[in-house]
Amino acid sequence: METFSVEFRAGSLELSASVTEYDHHQKFKVEMLRDEPDPILLSRSQKGEWTVAQRGSRNFSNSDFQELEDAIEVQLNEIHGVQQMLVLTDFSEEASNAANYAVGLAHQLKTRKLILYHSYESFVIPPVAFTPLTGALNVSAKLSNEKLNELKNELEDRLPEATKIDLRTDDRNLIEAVNTQVDEENIGLVVTGISGKSGLEKALVGSNAMNLAKACHAPLLIVPAAATFQPIKTVVFACDLKQVSKSTPAFAIKSFVHALAANLLILNVEHDRAHLPPGAIKEMSDLHRLWDDEQVEIHYTHHENKAEGIMEFAGHQRAELLVAVPKEYGFFEHIFHHNMTDKLAYHSHLPLLLFR
Q1: pTM (2 decimals)?
Q2: What domains appear along the chain, each with residue ranges and CATH number?
Q3: Per-residue confidence at 344, pLDDT binned at 50, 70, 90?
Q4: In 3-state terms, the chain is what percent helix, strand and coil (to 5)?
């Protein structure tokens, strides 16, 4: 669920509304006033067809609703096309690497604003929070601003001409601060770095990372320490066959891939080719229906270790980005286990993009 504002014309009036989306961008509540008792309810199909489910108390004509729907569509494309990007930093080398990767990505996405953010919490971070990198620094506001300016100076020469860079620092809890900025700034992507093998396991396999992945209101891009930006031409979306229609944020993934102008490969890996899980045929049908308006390739394969199967496929396809919708702890445990990294060295440079 996300909330954003739109401006639109209704007759001779210029209006502003608060829009809250539900059900993976298929249902929208529109309010002219906060906590409006009779809001407008709109529905949007996977193919982008709008219907008015509830007209609300406003005396809008059909053309007024068309204006409203068009305004929401424009705003959705701006958000998920990543016009605003939030980069988390703790001033480590790994964080600087992630920031440099974000600059390269900003070129490909034509991002207008890149925000560098550091949280200098002066208290012990609670177990529900997530420090994006090992060795995070608890520094004063003054020192934090100095370091942010140093990082900005390092990045500015490589930024796209039209991209503005902003600096933010405070002592808020990281997840709270990230989500507030995501909502207020219409952030389309949050970027963080990770360190080497031990740091990788600490950062991603622990419950803290899962908390951020579940709580972050925007897609989360995790950049390994060995990653250097390469134009993204091939994206692999690793999905399971569990409640495909309900659990796949298809609009958000499609919008991001369109903004990249990349090829999308959808992959399902099962343990045993001969014994599909219950309901798999229906889920496969739903998967194809979800993507039948896109030029995508859908691949089915089997592997005794799903994580290894995913990474082998990504390596064979020379993918530059792996996308996933995390549903369980085990996905991270297997994908980022150090033994896995040893056997599949090419994985160490592959960024992982998490959608809720």
Answers
A1: 0.84
A2: 2-80 (no CATH), 84-223 (3.40.50.620), 234-351 (3.40.50.620)
A3: very low
A4: 40, 25, 35
